[in-house]
Automatic annotation (TrEMBL):
This is Uncharacterized protein. The lineage of its organism: Bacteria, Bacillati, Actinomycetota, Actinomycetes, Pseudonocardiales. The chain crosses the membrane at residues 63-88, 97-118, 138-167, 232-254, 260-277, 282-299. It comes from the Bacteria. Keywords: Membrane, Transmembrane, Transmembrane helix. The keyword Transmembrane applies.
């Protein structure tokens, strides 16, 4: 019976993976490629880890698109390998179903769609840190510090999950010692300006010969304060858009186990509404933390009925894609054009997006035109974070 169950869940997971890839796969966009070029050597103080590692090769190739695309797919493939390992090593069918269910939900397609975004590097670093934790806790702490340098939203995504795992395994004193370095790094990153004066202009000039057009609005993130960003969108609007997902994942988790700290780790990405308007991305991170915390907890506590209800509700709450794209539909016309759509690259192209002023708190030109990536229905464009 156990063999049949394992075969059934394996087939289900394989189908979910194929469907997720079909619905969301694309080449990394120009926004992601631009941010992957950001390095500390160019004067950037946030989100510089990936770009700093790629900097020598980027310089040698004239910021060729393939450098950033290869790095993005390397991270995605590594993350998929981690998911496969977690699936096949799971001792309980419930944990395998959590992995397969997460892929089958809109979150699975969104994973493939956001290839190149630093969210994937954050979760990869989290899983490697958890792998190192039993033998080398100091290394695990260092990896979570690296996550902060990859993107400061680590504080509201992977660090809360890491903290929950630490509290389950260690005393409060040891937990505090292992968290002090990443927390200090987070505070330092937030205290410093996002970049040194002129860093964005210098990088824009350096990338002038690249085989894709760098996103000026992506680099503008580093020149704008958070208060200036808040004037470009409605925090209330974003909170209302992610509220249904937040309610489902938190309620779904608390129906599994009464663990307030773990529930807080599940809910933490909702606070990203105060960082930017990218509501679908924040919703994806909420669903992801929900699945990760369930996966890291004991399987014996998982109750199938509440999980099934949560899955049905989450399936009815779509996660719109970036750049006016949509999850692919299952029909022959779309299937026949899959290759053309999925492998289209931004090389030699110019992406121009205009933010609708209706969902911003200000309707002046910076909201409507200069800052071109904004929240929109039904397809949000990548945001300030």
């Amino acid at each position: 019976m156990a063999v049949v169950t394992h075969r059934a869940t394996t087939a289900f997971a394989a189908l979910a993976l194929l469907l997720a890839a079909y619905r969301g796969f694309r080449m990394p966009g120009d926004w992601a490629a631009t941010l992957e070029a950001v390095s500390v050597t160019d004067g950037f103080h946030r989100r510089f880890l990936v770009g700093t590692l790629l900097h020598p090769l980027a310089l040698a190739t004239g910021y060729a698109y393939w450098v950033f695309a290869a790095a993005a797919f390397a991270v995605l493939l590594a993350l998929l390998a981690v998911l496969a390992t977690a699936f096949f090593r799971a001792r309980h069918p419930a944990h395998r179903l959590v992995v397969a269910g997460w892929l089958l939900l809109p979150s699975g397609g969104f994973l493939f769609h956001e290839v190149g975004y630093f969210d994937q590097a954050l979760y990869l670093l989290l899983f490697v840190a958890l792998w190192q934790l039993p033998r080398r806790p100091a290394v695990a702490s260092g990896l979570m510090t690296a996550a902060v340098f990859a993107h400061e939203i680590a504080a509201l995504t992977v660090l809360p999950v890491f903290a929950v795992v630490l509290l389950r395994r260690f005393s409060v004193r040891i937990t505090a010692k292992l968290l002090v370095t990443p927390v200090a790094a987070e505070l330092g990153v937030l205290a410093l300006p996002a970049s040194s004066p002129g860093a964005a202009d210098r990088l824009r000039t350096a990338m002038a010969g690249a085989d894709f057009t760098p996103r000026a609005d992506a680099l503008a993130l580093f020149e704008r304060s958070q208060s200036e960003s808040w004037r470009l969108y409605s925090i209330t609007e974003v909170l209302l858009l992610i509220a249904p997902i937040l309610v489902v994942v938190v309620t779904g988790f608390l129906l599994q186990r009464r663990d307030v700290l773990a529930a807080a780790a599940v809910a933490a990405p909702a606070l990203l509404a105060f960082a930017g308007w990218d509501w679908a991305r924040w919703g994806f991170l909420l669903v992801t933390n929900f699945a990760v915390v369930l996966l890291l907890g004991p399987a014996r506590d998982l109750r199938p009925l509440p999980l099934a209800v949560a899955a049905v509700l989450l399936a009815s709450l779509p996660l719109p894609y970036f750049d006016a794209q949509h999850p692919r539909e299952l029909n022959w016309r779309v299937v026949s054009t899959f290759a053309d759509q999925a492998f289209s690259t931004p090389r030699g192209k110019r992406t121009v997006n205009t933010a609708p002023p209706s969902l911003c708190t200000a309707s002046d030109p910076p909201c409507a035109t200069t800052f071109s990536r904004a929240i929109a229905r039904p397809s949000p464009l990548p945001s300030v974070a």
